[in-house]
Amino acid sequence: MHVEPPVGSPRSLEEAYGLLASAPHRPLAGGTDMLVQLTGELGPAPERVLDLWRLDELRGIRVEGGALEVGALTTHAQIRRSEACAAHAPTLVAAVATIGAAQIQNRGTIGGNVMNASPAGDTLPVLLALDAVLVAGGPRGERSIPAVGFWPAYRSTALAPDELLLRVRIPIVDGRRQAFRKVGTRRAQAISKVVLAAAWRRDPAWRDVRIAFGSVAATPIRATAAEAALEGAPPTAASIDRAVAALLAELRPIDDVRSTAAYRLEVSGRILRRLLEDAS
Amino acid sequence: MTIQAPAGRPAAPTPGHATPLPLRREGPAKLTGQALYTDDLVFPGAWYGATIRSTVPHARLLAIELDPAFDWGRVAVVTADDIAGRNVVASIAEDQPILVPVGGEIRHQAEPVVLLAAADRDTLREARRLVSLRTEPLPPVFDPLASTVVFAHHALVKGDVEAALAADGVVVVEATYRVGHQEQLYIENNAMIAIPRGDGGMTVHGSLQCPFYVHRALRTGLGLDDAHAQVVQAETGGGFGGKEEYPSMIALHAALLARRTGRPVRMIYDRHEDLAATTKRHPAVIRHRTGVRRDGTIVAQDIELVLDGGAYTTLTPVVLSRATIHAGGPYDVPNVRIRSRAVATNTPPNGAFRGFGAPQAEFAAEMQVGRCAEAIGMSPLEIRRRNAYRAAGVTPTGQVLHDDAAALEVLERAAEASEFDWVRARTAAERAGRGPRARTARGIGLALGWHGAGFTGSGEAKMGSVASIELTGDGRIRILTASTEMGQGTKTIFPQLVAAELGVDPDDVEMAPQDTSLVPDSGPTVASRTAMVVGGLLVHAARRLKADVEGRTGRPFELSWRDDARDHGPTRIDERFSPYPGRSFDDATYSGDAYPAFGWAAAVAEVEVDLDTAEVTVLSVVAVDDVGRAIHPVLCEGQVEGGTLQAVGYATIEEIKLVDGRYLNDRLQTYLIPTSLDAPRIETILVEAPFEDAPHGAKGVGELPMDVGAPAVVAAIHDATGAWIDDLPASPERIIAALAGIAPPGPPGMSTVSAP
Amino acid sequence: MTYRLVVNGEPAEVGVPGMRRLLDVLREDLGLTGTKEGCGEGECGACTVLVDGEVVVSCLVPVCQVDGSVVRTVEGLAVAGGSALAPLQAAFLEAGGAQCGICTPGMLMAADAFLAAGAEPTDDAIRGAIAGNLCRCTGYTKIVDAIRLAAERRQAGAGAA
Asked: Do both C69 and C91 map to the same domain?
């Protein structure tokens, strides 16, 4: 029982912006989220679709200006195979490797994951932890939006309806270390119960600590209290205790079909503690 | 286009089986995409059907309202008023309506109320949104322990339980176990296509296990006689019990719409509808009180078992029967009291799923034996050795076991193959030396089980199934049975059995299609009875055919059957089931031989538990199953492997949460089954302790592995972590709750009520 | 809109809405019902086909995105003009890798892509390659056996050639 809404298939960004300006369209990347919605059972099916698949200018991975740039239409499979991603954003590689299985990774894109804006989106905590910047384009030109402000509410983004996500910029930072942990229900094809991504430097005190979680709130979030508990502190058991305590005080996860609030809270603390101990 | 299997490349011969095994008969068609499942069938001019269901758990249906702005002339609408026969889905009790009538009682979410059909899907989708149901809410019941509507109940008593529990030197162990729903999750959803016939009859093609169940339902609901109802099984993409009863409902719906439109109507469920509406494994609450002596002797079992049947009777009384009889596990205990009941709740009806009540009961029984072993400081292997049934053992129904009681054999084989004692010593040492910041823990767990082969009690005797073999006038040998192929290998082993008796090649033996107008009623394809019962009838029929032909020709069958067909014309042998000699069951006293024989199974699982998250990896399972005789060892192993993984899923991740009686896990994104990466390495060992009264010795294999996998895995989790998890699934949420003392999830299988 | 694809080596042209699922185009517009629908949301893998050599779930791919692509389905696996099983199919038949058969077409396509990639057929690699294909009958054991058998025969054949 699928609807088949009209679809525009632009060959250039200009053409895409023109179509977006003419009428509301829902942009389509690899389809792995949108096609599920064509039944209309999981919320309204799109009225009109803008198929971005032919916009090769939105593909590709490169290192430029001190940042790793990943085009919005880059697939999870391409990220998994990328040496540049492995070198500068191993947590991104780890995250996309947990999305679906080969079939999904061959079609699903980082732009799609970002714009789907699911609180369980696996790459989103990584982008938060790595201080990524999301570059959007539209009739008014390009603009850059920090990941930390990109998902203001449940399943929404900072983009205007006539804008498209063009690429993700991840600054390359000397000495930055990063870690990723997903807790799902099974070993493949699982939506997360808790996702943790973190980045930091050590000198040897904790510096530039970023701790981000998915699936524990209505949006992917930074655990700012836990970050603050660590920032500048020595890597001791006491600082880890303070960070975990701060985390447990700031998270407010919920019960849902996938897990319980109690489990999410307890396990968030446990995996953060483990990560920090391993990093000490 | 016909695709042949590669010539001269038989399956690898198996030790002990001299001849190469036949390859899966319908395998080439399945491997090339030529096999036609229901949704692959094309009927020109067919309309698409849909079901409007209730969205409340309990209510009075006041009215059905169609939006007057819509042109309903484009759509066929069927309500209870349009049912020509009786408005019941024929089953054990006739309580479930085909469609709830206006004024009638809605008893669960997902209950069918209105049927629609249209020429195209867009019209149908539009029309669906424009039907509304006006209802008056009634208070729902979700807690099975509070339900006062009892579908069935039993009490089995042997010896004096209270006296035995009170005796000196007896340690009493008590616990309550709860298991939730489990979905069969065949990968092909339910599907039916009904085609109206010119003579007023109805033909239904569909995905189903039991052609004659559907046939009976059509006769009852449409008011047809035998000849005017025809049911044809399409290729069926898995069943596992899930296509035992609900296909009758879907066939009726498709047929009502077909009758209304005068056209073929396709009723093809999508996954969401299949998950939301069709039957699941029964949730259960099982309380055990066990008396065990320090030497390991179990002296008493006091068991109270409650099954949640959901809103209608369906097959629940029979499921309860099997659960009751298996509730003590495969142990010879002198004093036993088993009290059981199955009750109604305002949730979708539960039904058949591989194991049929035994997996729930045996999970509890095996966990309890593990607890008893711990209580007296004995190894889980040793306590089972001491108490397992032997030949001449007596079951709670008074059944005396024969020489094929292979409990000890499967137990010892499993212990040996898994190096149980050695591995357990190692995990114990690891546990003792474990620091507070250990990342993972390994554990090993053992379970022993039994499974009554075939129908419970007098079911088979009452059914009087028939299986036939025909030597046609043009010299073909043809098997006629209603036994369906749904992956387990019916179409391969039947010709194999018959060919072996006749001395011909299996390829010389044809299988008639499972079409009720062609084949006799050889009973439903359930209860692991196909190989044992129907296969046994075919062996007898083949022997009779052989004797007839050889008597006429004076030459061996394999040299003379074509000549005999030409000279004598067709010969048909109809073999009707007659009870196995010396075995009887008394329904009135619920005593006697509950099953013709029992199959025996043991499983040993090894797990690794992540101590941060309680994620469980099941590393390996050694599965040892006594199947009487493995007719086709490759197919037989396939049954054990598949059943074992379903049991692993049941133990670890398969769960349905409910709110207001509605399943929340009603999509494949939320109802998760194990992937290839979650599946353990499974080592299968087939044991053959033949059932002496079956001509081929087979006891059945389908359900056995389902009984032991889950308790083995959960025992392994206990070995790894020290925590007893009494509820299934033993999810990370439950394990963490046990280890860290945080709030556990609610009881499995029981609906919560949404905030007003 | 008219979309042109090459399906199992044959050019095909369909005039359908661009958002029609590739699965529906294959099954209903082209009559290739070998590809199965198990869930319609990309979870089960029964509808797996190859698009330009890569595995995809055809229930999540709109036809507008495969205009000009090369699609391979289970119907394209058999050899000798479709009259003989391909070595991979034969291995499934011999090892018992197909039971009810409904996951089999998708499983074969995932396995075919794995074989084509030429990776070492370790147990873990095979299991990883079919992790997007659910099977409820086999416990995956004999599917893994079948793919390993096919890979080993392929390697032996390549070595001999």
From this structure: no
Residues C36 and C60 both lie in one domain? yes
Q: Which chain C residue lies closest to A4 (C-alpha atoms)?
A: C19
pLDDT in tens, A20-48: 999 999 999 999 999 999 988 888 889 99
Q: Which tokens go with B232?
A: 């044809």
Chain C residue numbers touching A38 (CB-CB < 8 A): 19, 21
Question: What strand order describes the sheet that includes B477-480?
Answer: B509-511, B477-480, B466-471, B571-576
DSSP string, B402-465: -TT--HHHHHHHHHHHHTHHHHHHHHHHHHHT--TT--EEEEEEEEEEEEE-SSSTTHHHHH--
- CB-based contact A49:C19 (threshold 8 Å): yes
Chain C: closest CA distance from residue B361 (Å): 23
Q: How is B152-166 classified by DSSP, letter by letter?
A: EEEEEEES-HHHHHH
SS (H, E, C) B530-545: HHHHHHHHHHHHHHHH
- Asked if residue C82 belongs to a domain, the reply is no
Q: Are residues C109 and C133 in the same domain?
A: yes
Task: Give Cβ neighbours of residue C124 (< 8 Å, ≥ 6 apart).
Answer: none
Asked whether residue C81 is assigned to any structural domain, the reply reads: no
Looking at domain A59-171, its CATH architecture is: 2-Layer Sandwich (3.30)
Distance (Å) of CA B390 to CA B368, B370, B711: 20, 20, 22
Residues C68-117 pLDDT 10s: 999 999 999 999 887 899 999 999 999 999 999 999 999 999 999 999 99
Q: Does A160 touch chain B (CB under 8 A)?
A: no
Domain count, chain C: 2
- Which chain B residue shows the shortest CA-CA distance from A4? B122
* pLDDT mean over C141-150: 98
Rounded Cα distance between B32 and C85, Å, is 8
B236 with C39: Cβ contact below 8 A: no
**Tokens matching residue B536:** 């046994």
Mean pLDDT of chain B: 96
**pLDDT > 90: what percent of chain B?**
96
> B416-450+597-756 has which CATH code?
3.30.365.10
Residue B132 CA to residue B661 CA, distance in Å, equals: 20
Q: B405 with B578: CB under 8 angstroms?
A: no
Strand B47-53 relative to strand A221-222: parallel, antiparallel, unpaired? unpaired
- Which range marks the domain in which residue C31 is found? 2-76
Residue A279: Cβ within 10 Å count: 17
Inspect the interface and report whether the beta carbons of A51 and C18 lie closer than 8 Å: yes
Burial of B419 (0-12, 13-18, 19+ CB in 10 A): middle
Low-confidence stretches of chain A (pLDDT beneath 70): 1
Instruction: For residue range B633-679, list pLDDT tens digits in order.
Output: 999 999 999 999 999 999 999 999 999 999 999 999 999 999 999 99
Superfamily of domain B47-140+195-264: Aldehyde oxidase/xanthine dehydrogenase, a/b hammerhead (3.90.1170.50)
A177-279, superfamily in CATH? CO dehydrogenase flavoprotein, C-terminal domain (3.30.390.50)
Distance CA B714, CA B728 (A): 9
Task: Locate A191 and state its tokens.
Answer: 């939506």
Which partners does chain A have (≥3 C-beta pairs < 8 Å)?
B, C
Class of domain B465-576: alpha beta
Find chain C residues with C-beta within 8 A of A187's C-beta: 131
Would you state the pLDDT for residue B609?
Answer: 98
* Whether B613 contacts chain A with CB within 8 A: yes
Q: Under an 8 A CB cutoff, do A187 and B678 touch?
A: yes
Best residue in C94, C107, C122 for a mutation probing chain B (most B CBs within 10 Å): C94
- Asked if B416-450+597-756 and B465-576 have one fold, the answer is yes
Mean pLDDT of B234-254: 98
Contact (CB<8Å) A107/C60? yes
| Residue C12 shares a structural domain with residue C51 | yes
